[in-house]
Amino acid sequence: MTGKTLNRGPFPATRMRRMRRQDFSRRLMRETILTPSDLIYPMFVLEGKGQRESIASMPGVERVSLDLLQQEAKHLSSLGVPAIAIFPVTEQDKKTLDAKEAYNPNGLAQRAIKAIKDAAPEMGVITDVALDPFTTHGQDGIIDAEGYVLNDRTVETLIKQAQSHAEAGADVVAPSDMMDGRIGAIRQQLEAAGHINVCILAYSAKYASSYYGPFRDAVGSASNLKGGNKFTYQMDPANRQEALHEVALDLQEGADMIMIKPGMPYLDIVREVKDQFGAPTFVYQVSGEYAMHMAAFQNGWLDQEAVTLESLNCIKRAGADGILTYFAKYAAERLNS
Ligand SMILES: NCc1[nH]cc(CCC(=O)O)c1CC(=O)O
Ligand SMILES: [Mg+2]
């Protein structure tokens, strides 16, 4: 090193740091701005009154009865969160092999829809169309003697479930089951029944992910599943082109919105789907993603506010028009403050 002069090279005409130097110019060049309007809050609902249960693997998330759901809906509405996605916790004795509780007009999900609409009519209500909360084995469909999930037999039941949600007042039905042809079948049924303005949010590229563990604890399907998996219908995490194929089919069949799930490990898929189709694209930051963030926050290893908002902002930057996240309420509170 001694005796050598520093070669500075040509004087830089472009200094990228000029625009980063002050807050005003950082704000002017910011490409992605997260707002409460980007967020959808998934909520677990329970029977009863004044009931509130915590979920060990999802600190800060609770299962709540319908009266508390109504209070939450009003609060979320005042924060500017546009929609709630509801997930019923079905009592064990209502689970059957044919999952008929899924389309009970007085079922918990159907009453939850009405409860939200009564309390906060402006709140968008999104329902989960899938059979796993209603089957004794925790699979998303009707099974044969070998335990294989039967596609067309399951779709027959999903149609009834979606229609019952529409009749209860759902704005959006969201099939999360990954049966083939269900979007077209549900669309046809809704049209025939006069529910022409009910939207379909298709979980189009839903991967067979191990990040769903805490959700299965939350809805109580983990114990029913008995260590089983969903590899015969959900997608292999190794696949990319298959996701594009799935999205293309769901859009052809009449989906209004499509979803990629999980979120953060799958943002390459989000970008590609958004670029290729340009349709309203949603991302589910799932229970396992929430759990690992919370574990780090609770240990003091990561800063909760900064990391939460960064994670959501990055999902939006990747191409999401909206994000289902258990951080929706927290993030909207932070964004409003
Ligand atoms: N139809 C089931 C369903 N709907 C939403 C989730 C997962 C959501 C999450 O992990 O937050 C799952 C779990 C699964 O497929 O087993
Ligand atoms: Mg499909």
UniProtKB/TrEMBL annotation:
Q: Name one GO cellular component term.
A: cytosol
- Annotated active site: 206 (schiff-base intermediate with substrate), 261 (schiff-base intermediate with substrate)
The pathway this protein participates in, as annotated, is: Porphyrin-containing compound metabolism; protoporphyrin-IX biosynthesis; coproporphyrinogen-III from 5-aminolevulinate: step 1/4
Q: Which InterPro entries match?
A: ALAD, ALAD_AS, Aldolase_TIM
UniProt feature coiled coil, ranges:
none
Which Gene3D superfamilies does the UniProt entry name for this protein?
Aldolase class I
PROSITE patterns given in the database record: D_ALA_DEHYDRATASE
For this UniProt record, give its keywords in alphabetical order, as a comma-separated list: Heme biosynthesis, Lyase, Magnesium, Metal-binding, Porphyrin biosynthesis
What SMART domains does this protein map onto?
A: ALAD
Q: Which reaction does it catalyse?
A: 2 5-aminolevulinate = porphobilinogen + 2 H2O + H(+)
Q: What is its EC number?
A: 4.2.1.24
- Binding positions for Mg(2+)? 246
Biological-process GO terms, alphabetical:
protoporphyrinogen IX biosynthetic process
MF annotations from Gene Ontology: porphobilinogen synthase activity; zinc ion binding
Question: Where on the tree of life does the source sit, at the highest rank?
Answer: Bacteria
Q: How does it assemble?
A: Homooctamer.
The similarity comment for this entry is: Belongs to the ALAD family.
Listed name of the protein: Delta-aminolevulinic acid dehydratase
Query: Source organism lineage?
Result: Bacteria, Pseudomonadati, Pseudomonadota, Gammaproteobacteria, Pseudomonadales
